Amino acid sequence: MSNKEIGVALITGASSGIGLATAKALQQAGYRVFGTSRRAVASADGITMLSCDVTDEVSVKSAVAEVLKQAGRIDLLVNNAGIGLLGGAEESSTAQAQAMFDVNVFGITRVTNAVLPTMRSQRRGRIVNISSVLGLIPSPYNALYVATKHAVEGYSESLDHELRTFGIRVVLVEPGFTRTSFEASITRPDQPLAVYDSVRAGMEVFMRNGVNAGDAPEVVAVRVLKAATAAAPRRRYAAGKLAHQISFMRRFLPESIVDKNLRKINNLPA
């Protein structure tokens, strides 16, 4: 590691959106940055891109090994790769639900487990997991996606307690609506039911409008950089105005008020 580099960072899902913005922010801050994507993407702007499918353990181990071959260490892991799913909970098969967990939850555990031996031997490391404000609250017609983010929250907090004695910290970043291609590429249910068609269509419009009016990915990248470099990191970092509002609401308002507001925001009858 040269004197100009403050560390070596590995970011999953770095070809676009939050991942790419984060990769650029970290590179500009002085990190040597390696990004991953499922499909091969050319390296550019000082960011070395590697192919990696987080659902494939061999692919994950190969990508981590390549980072270590080139850089000799990993100081920061940003688990960003993820997929969405919009639809009624009963409209998805168990197989579809498992596929979502395989990316959003087990993908994080695979990459984390692959880098931990290196971080433990270094007695130093930081893991930033990209969660969501939906890891704090329910969201109708996003039940399975929300379940993955709640899982990431619990996993991250628990893992942080396990790793502190090795000089490693695990931190959460929780964005709200963000202007990325996430909504356009979101998965639809594989067993749609006509009874949900009308409300599901309304939720698609709600999400599209939210994304269009959302934060720039650079807003999230700034919070990731803060989470990565803070000497004494907080457990979670809300990213954006909406995320801060929801975090406050969940922490301090009575459950009945939160429930009422959520139904109103999502245009559901009281």
Structural classification: alpha/beta
CATH homologous group name of the domain at 7-82 and 102-183 and 215-239: NAD(P)-binding Rossmann-like Domain
Stretches with pLDDT under 50, minimum 5 residues:
none
Percent of sequence in beta strands: 5-15%
**Overall spatial form:** globular
Set out the fold topology.
Blueprint: E1 7-11, H1 17-29, E2 31-37, E3 47-51, H2 57-71, E4 76-79, H3 94-104, H4 106-122, E5 125-130, H5 143-163, E6 168-175, H6 197-212, H7 217-229, E7 236-239, H8 241-252, H9 255-265
Parallel strand pairs: 1-2, 1-4, 2-3, 4-5, 5-6, 6-7
Task: Describe this protein's structure.
The chain has 270 residues and is α/β, with parallel strands linked by helices. It has a domain at 7-82 and 102-183 and 215-239: 3-Layer(aba) Sandwich (Rossmann fold), CATH 3.40.50.720. The chain is built from nine helices and seven strands; from the N terminus they run βαββαβααβαβααβαα. It has a seven-stranded parallel sheet with strand order 3-2-1-4-5-6-7, sandwiched between helices. Helix 1 packs across helix 7, helix 2 runs parallel beside helix 4 (106-122) and helix 3 (94-104) runs parallel beside helix 5. GO terms for molecular function: oxidoreductase activity.
Quick recap of the structure?
The chain is an alpha/beta fold and 270 residues long. It has a domain at 7-82 and 102-183 and 215-239: Rossmann fold, CATH 3.40.50. The protein contains 9 helices and 7 strands, in the order E-H-E-E-H-E-H-H-E-H-E-H-H-E-H-H.
